[in-house]
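Progress report, Aim 2. The chain analyzed during this reporting quarter is listed below.
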Amino acid sequence: MSIPRFYCPPPLSVNAPFELPPAAAHHASRVLRLRVNDVVQLFDGAGIELHGIICEISGKRVVLGKLQVCTVNRESPLHIVLAQAMCSSEKMDWVVQKATELGATEIQPVQTQRSVAKLSAERAEKRIEHWHSVTIAACEQCGRNVLPKVHAPQELSAWLAAMRDMPGSKFILLPHAATTLHEQPQPQGTITLLIGPEGGFSEDEAQLAQQIGFIPIRLGARVLRTETAAMAGIATLQTLWGDFK
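Predicted structure tokens for the chain:
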């Protein structure tokens, strides 16, 4: 059985007993039914992992002791920014979850001409909070100690304008592109992967991205769904140059 993991915002300290935050305490005591002397892991989302033992469970309180820092790095050597066209809520949650598991460093939702989901400012703020919770759960499951950054959704044209002078390697996935990732030189610096919506990019959007330096890439001979393309793209990057090797 794997050791239960809980996200606890920093700072974490090994110098005194540590009380789990309310949500983590509820999950530990009421959902997982953990008991005194059970071993658990904590992580702060910024790279720190602690191992400890439950020394007290009382009502809604769960207190840990014998905390020790665990020096482990489960982050990919690649800095991958997934720029994902907005899709339905269920699909977007799935993309955020799986991108976290696969090692993406940042997730940038973008509104495109054919995006199914359109968010107001108020709804976008709530979705960002929700996606943050999705990354936490994914990190608890997969062992990552660093939470990926989920940015506020932006209109594609505005985001592309800001990306014009950004260094690093930039790729846009297009079904009929002439080249593949395997044919590219090893990227240097940040890798930005731009994924279109269910209906694909418009011709104007694809041309604009290429004008500012995005290299068109295809993934095989088949047209992939937006959520499949995102995961296949990240997995290919990790296989070629990351920690899948």
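The longest strand covers residues 49-58. The chain has a mean pLDDT of 94. These observations will guide the mutagenesis work planned for the next reporting period.
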